[in-house]
Amino acid sequence: MKMNENTEIMPTAEQFPQENAAECSVECPMTAEPKYSRTESLFAVAFSFVGYFFIKTFITGSAGMGAAIFMVFTAAASAAFAWLMGAKGSRHSRMYLLLTFVFSANLGISGNGLIMLLDFMFAVIMLAMWSFSVNNPDWNGVDSGFIYNLGHAVFGQSFGNFGKCPSAAAELMKRDKGGRNIRNILLGVLMALPATVVVTVILSYADSRFDNIMGSIVGGISLSGIWKYLLGLPISFLVFGIVYAAVSEKSCERLKNERTTASLRIIPGMMMYSSVVPLCIVYVIFFFLQLSYFTSAFGGVLPEEFSASEYARKGFFELCIVSVINLFVIAAMNLFCRYDDKNGESKRPIPLRFFTVLLSFFTIILIATALSKMEMYIARFGLTPKRVYTSWFMLVLTALFALIIARQFKQFNMAHIGAVIFTVMLLLLSFSQTDSLIAGYNISAYESGNIENIDFDGLSSDAVYAVAPLLKCEDSELNHAARDWYTNCLSGNVNNAWYGNGLSEYIVHGLQENGD
Asked: In a 3-state reduction of DSSP, which class is residue 7?
């Protein structure tokens, strides 16, 4: 048989040396190495239930003790996972984890809905920052790139690792003989399900006692629980994505952040400064025309043409909105203004620093005026939750603008100090039992004659520490206001499971059992 010269001759087995065959068997194994370790797979299965418990406690439930236990357990499981995987922590990661536990625990103490929402959001952010700082030797704490790092920690880690949970859980079913046996058992149960259902129905018709027993068994299986599990899977995948990032090796994000920030500086300096000048002129004219009107608040003097409530409310929220707008203007000006930073951020152009200080100074004046008006309003009409929250927010803004001004004259880690101030302020708001402080202030103001009427409308069960003694008070108006508040608290917590109540709500229900 004649062969073409381009025809390849297949080698025979005898032509392979024995050592090459052995080498090939080592370098090219027939079975691929598992992508995930057994620990990762087991925790992926466990974390697949996170979404179910989230929906059960936060969506269909009313938070309370169940939410606190859920959040604390999730954080503890995350820390255990990182420890088992040998992830290296740091003092920053330990602080973030501690804050996660602290704010999570308050979900079981407070009954104030807004404070519980803030605590939950902050606890989630702290858990994401813990994951970002673990196993990250280049992370030196909060710095100028904090916003970039925060966005990456919360959204980049969760969505970037969204598919890790299902893939790691599926790895458990195929990694070894035991996993394959579990998979085969589950598939066998599913295969037997149709025949089992048919036979059960037929036998139920044949025997009434069997029908009753099977009815009670089937009735105990909640389809709503299955739906909660399925609907909660995306939440489970996001949470496990954050936790999985804790055991991943991380590269330094600082250079990427600096490059991203530098690429945003596209607006020439003169154009940027010119865009801010009209705004400053508007403020000068506004302060000049309204000088007597606004500064009267500092001396507690009420203008003749206004009542106390009209004067305090008029323009207050507008001043708050303008203050927030100024914060965004300052941020945009420093982010998009083009300048050469080769000598460091402290060498920013003088006009840029000048307009930053000027806008910050104008804003602090606006905030001080608004707080003075609020103080006058509180002195005449007492405290409410909205007045406390608004004043708290304005104080946080004041500290932030003061830091911005100081940063223009001296180089320091403004982001770190700002983060510490915000955390301390949130701790004070969360753990000071705000509603009890509000009730206590109003009671003292009423008894001293500073306010004419008193009620506790809008106060949560957290006010129990100040209001409960009034249930036996001899003053009819105080007693009536306390009993109205007490009735509202009880009606707002009807049919709650034990895990749906916080500590203050348990105390309120305890008053009912004691016959108060």
From this structure: coil
